[in-house]
Amino acid sequence: MTRRHIHYEAAFEDYLRSQGIAYIAVDEQRKAIFSGARVKSFDFLVYRSPGETWLVDIKGRKFPYDTNANKRYWENWVTREDLDGLLKWQGVFGNGFVGMFVFAYLLLGPDDRLPTPHVHAFRESHYAFMTIPVSDYRDHARTRSEKWDTLSMPTRQFREMATAIQRSSA
């Protein structure tokens, strides 16, 4: 069961339903154990097309993120646990399953600075969903914070590689 109190996940689930996309929400209360180690769960199995299923980990971010000093766009950080867990699940499921980070951006800025024109309205807010395969993210990620064990991609690379989930093709 998804954590429906987390609006980013609830908005993504609403998007999937509104588009008639088949999916299964994963019970995040449980962690699987592989080789004696706990592995972080992903959020959704999303059936994209015959032969391709996404293992989706939702990363909720504000767009822009306001730091009081300035506004930062395209926040795309993840924890190392997020990355390692999704890569592990992709390996367990095998061919036809693709680990995907879906950055669910809560849109707070002006319309001329949106990450994509494909916007989903949910509970009086607007969201944009940008995807990137976990293997591409891994290949381009850099340490963001050693203290918090977080990674991120350079903004320009992320903008070039991330793909919007579009209403017409999702």
Q: What is the chain-wise order of helices and strands?
A: HEEEEEEEEHEEEHEEHE
How many H/I helices?
A: 4
- The rounded Rg comes to 16 Å
Distance between the termini: 22 Å
Task: Supply the helix-strand structural class.
Answer: alpha+beta
Work out the strand percent: 35-45%
**How would a crystallographer describe the biggest sheet?**
7 strands, mixed
CATH topology: Trna Endonuclease, Chain: A, domain 1
Give the overall shape.
globular
Counted up, domains total 1
CATH class: Alpha Beta
Helix content: 10-25%
- What's the architecture in CATH terms? 3-Layer(aba) Sandwich
Average pLDDT metric: 88
The total count of strands amounts to: 14
Q: List unreliable stretches of 5+ residues.
A: none
Description:
- The protein is built from 4 helices and 14 strands.
- It is of the alpha+beta class and 170 residues long.
- The protein has one domain: Trna Endonuclease, Chain: A, domain 1 (3-Layer(aba) Sandwich), CATH 3.40.1350.10.
- Helices cover 24% and strands 38% of the residues.
- The model has no long low-confidence stretch (mean pLDDT 88).
- The strands form 4 sheets. Strands 1, 4, 5, 9, 10, 11 and 14 form a 7-stranded mixed beta sheet that branches. Strands 8-13-12 form a 3-stranded antiparallel beta sheet.
Task: Compile the SSE list and pairings.
Layout: H1 7-19, E1 23-25, E2 32-34, E3 37-39, E4 44-49, E5 52-63, E6 65-66, E7 71-72, E8 78-79, H2 80-93, E9 97-107, E10 120-122, E11 125-133, H3 134-140, E12 142-145, E13 150-152, H4 155-161, E14 163-164
Parallel strand pairs: 5-9
Antiparallel strand pairs: 1-4, 2-3, 4-5, 6-7, 8-13, 9-11, 10-11, 11-14, 12-13
